[in-house]
Amino acid sequence: MTVLTRTPAPVDPGLLSRALEVAGRLANDAAEVIAATAGRAPGSEAKADPFDWVTDTDRTLERHTRRVLAAEFPGIPVVGEEYGADATAAGSAYRWIVDPVDGTANYVAGFPWCAYSLGLVDGDGPVVGVVADPSRAQIYAAARGRGVRANGAPVRAATRTTAVGALVCAESPSPGFAERAAAHHTGLRVLGSTALAITQVALGRAVAAVIDDYHEWDVAGALCLALEAGAVVVDRAGGPDPMPAGGLLVAVPAVVEQVYSWWAA
To answer: How many Å apart are CA 252 and CA 229, to the nearest integer?
Structure first.
């Protein structure tokens, strides 16, 4: 299996710098709110099912994000989990994608795996991405061609050549995938936050993440981190796609074929 990565179009450096600065500021704002309220989330209620939560924090952070982005980038529409897509989002050259609290069930319970995720994307995929990890006081940020930083320090994906003895993150993994990973002495971790699962690959902690069910706001910010850290993203057919729909594998290049074989089987 040979994964050929695609070369995305360059982006105006001024836009990249300004988007990174504003996104980082929003991530810091969100991290403070989430850290202060986790485990005692006001206005908590179930949405589609008893495990699909929304809170006042989700709504407040998304409204704040939309206000700031509308003022700073008036021509760029926003897509968010709680308030949907702006009318012009589908045909716009750029769009912001925000998940105010990814892993809301964890947040409501006070379990330390939840995040704020914000991404700027174009027709070639993620342009800028930030993920705030409030429980670890970390802000992860990346921009196309500029690499990834964790609280300002550069990071890279792992350099391992095998998934044996390593960790793989997954959200809602199938029993078959879990069995194949275990047979190869690979540890499987389910975090309950899609954004943080993908981020672990960017940080070099996990060699891969398999995400079967998600919305674009769950993955947009974190996929920018992973791609800029040197990871590869493929769709269910094994083809390169910087932000695929319907299932994705993000992995260290040397292990993508190995983990993909477990996933595809």
So the answer is: 9
